[in-house]
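Annex B. Sample input.
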Amino acid sequence: MYVLELLSHVGGHLLAEAHLLLAAAVTLHVLLRKRDIGGSIGWIGVAWFAPFLGTVLYLVFGINRVTRRAHRLRARRPWRASDGQLVPQVERSDHLGPLDRTARRLTRRPADGGNTVMPLRNGDDAYPQMIGAIEGARMSVALSSYIFRDDAAGRAIIAALVAAHERGVQVRVLIDGYGSGYFWAAAHSRLRRAGVPVARFLHSHLPWRMPFINLRTHKKILCIDGQTGFTGGLNIGAENLVVGNNPQQTSRELVRDMHFRVEGPVVAQLIDAFAEDWVFTTGETLAGDAWFPEPAPAGAMIARVVTSGPDQDLEKIEYLALQAIGCAERSIRIMTPYFLPDDRLLTALGLAAMRGVRVDVIVPRNSDHRVVDWAFRAQIVPLAATGARIWLSPPPFEHTKLMTVDGAWCLIGSSNWDMRSFRLNFELNMEVYDAGLVARLDRFMMAAQRRRLSARRLQKRPLPWRLRDAAARLMLPYL
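Annex B, continued. Sample output.
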């Protein structure tokens, strides 16, 4: 009995010492690696007050393991000089000049001229054009999608991809490892059985790779022969077929969205973004004229691709949005399915409204995530109190992501206005300088401004609702 008591006593001391060492190690790692003060305090507290479990949770969920090496393609980049430096660009002389310079420093990409960017509404407009482009491909097809369903919409695109592969076109398809089904991705299986090179981004059933479930490629890219591209917010699924030809879906199940057809030199930047994700996932480098032909002008718009993700591109889209808000003199319009930004963006928007900039934020009356709607109503009160106008768009669910500034600049693409998109997801947006396109997007957003959500109205809601929403707001980093 004495021996057992002694072993128990010694074992208890060893466990206590092990806990102290592990908690101290977590604390040191957090202090050196984490920038967010609230998150840092939270992880340190969990490590100290939840012995061993706190350390395990931090190891699994708290460490960013996706520090992707900059897999830069060795092929000649159309926008780079022979010494590898960026080709000099003409400086803007208007009030958006600082925005252009910031974007160039953030992305290491120029603002390419000679482009055409055409809006496409819902899958009804976009899918036929995407299928037609794939059917006309002669050299290469690159497709990346967060959601790719094996349904009425997805199977038509799958058939076009398989046919292109069978006639000798180089086809590469990248599907997110979570968004298209973690345990079973039917579109991936169908493409693989047909022999099409297809991969799943950050997907694994191995337990030690489970932390990657929280890191997703949310990009939507389709590039044909290095000359024609498609990007925006549109996933691939029958829910995006809205106009009359989708009787299986109810109004609550439909998803409205906006995609864009892109032609011109900036398509090379879209291909480049896809190629970096492809080499990271598969190890295969895409190079040569099939993927990067000599760029040809196709219009007069100036455009640049902006990527972000929890690696070397951390928070770049958020930084660009902050700079755009700071440069705005007359108007800022934002449309997004989820509006849960951090205090930096809320403060910047509020200050813009107080200095006289017209700030309009349009969100769906009801999103596809009820908890997100609750958190949004708690998060938005301080911004609404500054004079910024918060609008609710009617059903069906509006998944479009747009931002315009001063009738001259717009930001389109895959990123929502929430912490997941800005800090966890791999996202791709495109900024475009063109008054005609911006005017068209402004008119579209103004038409969606149906019901205004005022600060007074939010503050007068019943106390149980406000408590519920405030509790949901605590989950912002994970929504």
